[in-house]
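Tutorial sheet, problem 5. The two components below are modelled jointly, 318 residues in total.
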Amino acid sequence: MKDLQLFAALDNQEREAITQIAQAKVYHKGEDIFMEGDPADTIYLVRKGKVLLYKISDEGKEISLEILQDDDIFGENTIFEDVHHTMNAKAIEDTFVCTCSNKQLPQLLANPMVAIKIIKVLGDKLNNYTEQIAAMAFQDVKGRILSTLVRLAKEHGKTTSKGIKVDIYLNHQDLANLVNASRVMVTRTLATLKEEGKIEVSSQRFYLLDQGLLKEAVRNA
Amino acid sequence: MPDHAINGAKLRQKKLIETAWKLNKFRWMMYEVKLDTEVGKILGAIIYLAEQEELLLDKYDLKKMNWLVNQLANLGYDLQLVLETIEKLGQRAPFSN
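Model answer (C-alpha cells):
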C-alpha cells in the first residue's frame, strides 16, 4: 500500500505511519464491497483492480455510476458522521484495496499531503461527472463513446507513434456501462469508428487516431 | 499542535466535506440522467443552460434561478417538477433522500 500514488509525496517514516492506519484487503471478482444502506464507516483506496459503483433503480435496473481503477478512492461518505452508503460497490476484477476506518480517518487526514491529494482525486471526479452528464444528455452513442475515450486518454493516455494509447484495460461491457448503452451497440459502434479510422484496438487497448480527437485529448490534458 | 496547523487541518476537512457533498450530488444527477427519468431530462437541460450562461450550479442567485426556471418551463418541462428538481439540486445530499 506504500506504493499508492496517494502516498507518493510522503517520506519513508510517514509511509510507515500510514501502514499502521490502513489495512490491506482483497476482493475477488464479483464480490460485493458494500451495499446501499450499509453503514459508511470505511474509506477505500484502490491499489490494483477494478470496482464498479452502481445503484439499483426501483424497477430493478442496474445503473452504473463509475468504474474505479488503480489509485482511485471511494466510500468517501465515511467523512460524514453516522451515514449509510447510497450506492453499491463490487469488484469486477480481483481487487486489492487499502481501507481506513472512520475512526482512523482523522489520523490519515492529519498529513496535509495526503488530505490535499484525496481532495484532488475527488475534485477531479467532479469535472469528469460534469462532462459525462452533459455527454449523456446530448450525445448519441457514438459521441458518448468518443468523449469517454477522450476523457480516459486525458487521464491514462500515452503518446505513441500510432496515436494516443488509452492505457487501461476496458472490455466492451465496461465501456457500455460507462456510456449507458448496450454491449451490442457499443461493439457495433466501435467497429464503425475503426472503419472510419478514428480509433484502433490493439493488445486490449484503445488508440485514438483521429487528429481532432488527439488535439482535444492533448488540449485538455 | 500549533494554531496554524489546527486551522489548516480544519480547512482541509471543510474542503473535503464540500467535495464529498458535491460528488454525492453529481452521482445523483448521473443516476437520474442514465435512468432517463423526467428529472434526468431536466438536469440535462439545466447543465446545457448552465454551460451556455456560465451559471454555477452550486451557487444560488435568485435572478439566475428565476431565469433558469422560465427557460425550462418554456422548453416544455413541467413547472412543478422543475421546481422540485432545482430544490433537490440545492440540497447537500440529494442521493440520501
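Marking note: Chain B has a mean pLDDT of 82. Full credit if you identified this.
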